[in-house]
Specification:
The chain is of the alpha/beta class. It has 2 domains: 3-92, Fe-S cluster assembly (FSCA) (GMP Synthetase, Chain A, domain 3, 2-Layer Sandwich), CATH 3.30.300.130; 103-183, no CATH class. It has 4 helices and 7 strands, in the order ααββαβαββββ. The chain has helices at residues 16-26, 38-41, 69-82, 105-114, and strands spanning 44-49, 55-59, 88-92, 116-117, 156-160, 168-173, 179-183. The strands form 2 sheets. It has a 4-stranded mixed sheet with strand order 4-7-6-5. The protein has a 3-stranded mixed sheet with strand order 1-2-3. Strand 6 and strand 7 form a beta hairpin. The chain is elongated and about 55 Å long. Mean pLDDT is 84; it is low at 1-6 and 136-142.
């Protein structure tokens, strides 16, 4: 994975205001999956002090039409205002495109514990990942294996390509018979 395309996991500056912003934003949950933060999902890309003194928050949507982005921006503003970090501005960037590879290992475990099967690693740097309008071809001739987050069985079946959000598919475990969301890799 090209490290330059990954969102930062630690602030790059010793600036106290920037460090306080990172800390405040660490607690901002994703509005659709509240067990993970926007930082854990890789939506929060960077926090930088602008030349004009305004704190700039850089975010990338999980996909370009994500309806949660306005709520995320509002939640970011509330967190920054609550921490006394005004003035600030939010800048949305679409390139490089968000990838599920940016989800932290801890967030993957929280997704699993919440009943959402986390995505596997895509392994393609986001900067060179091709845009596809059809499902990805199966790797090495075999379909992706989706394990049930409840019982761990890989004996699962896709029920619907779209689940509670466009980022997820609906699956059913054929062993424990429970339905579950699968966070689609891209």
């Amino acid at each position: 994975m090209n490290v330059a395309t990954l969102p930062p996991r630690h602030h790059r500056t010793t600036d106290g205001r920037t460090a306080r912003a990172w800390a405040a934003l660490e607690a901002v949950p994703d509005p659709e999956i509240p067990v993970v933060s926007i930082r854990d999902l890789g939506i929060l890309r960077d926090v930088v002090p602008g030349a004009d003194g305004v704190l700039e928050i850089v975010i990338t949507p999980t996909y370009s039409g994500c309806p949660a982005m306005s709520q995320i921006a509002e939640d970011i503003g509330q967190a920054l205002d609550g921490a006394g970090l005004a003035p600030w501005r939010i800048r949305s960037v679409l390139a490089p495109a968000w990838t599920t590879d940016w989800i932290t290992p801890a967030a993957r475990e929280r997704l699993r514990a919440f009943g959402i099967a986390p995505p596997g690693q895509c392994g393609t740097p986001a900067a060179v990942q091709p845009l596809r309008f059809v499902p990805r071809a199966a790797r090495a001739g075999a379909p992706d294996v989706v394990a049930c987050p409840r019982c761990g069985s890989v004996h699962t079946q896709e029920i619907s390509r779209f689940a509670s959000t466009a980022c997820k598919a609906l699956y059913r475990c054929l062993d424990c018979r429970e339905p579950f969301d699968y966070f689609k890799p891209y």
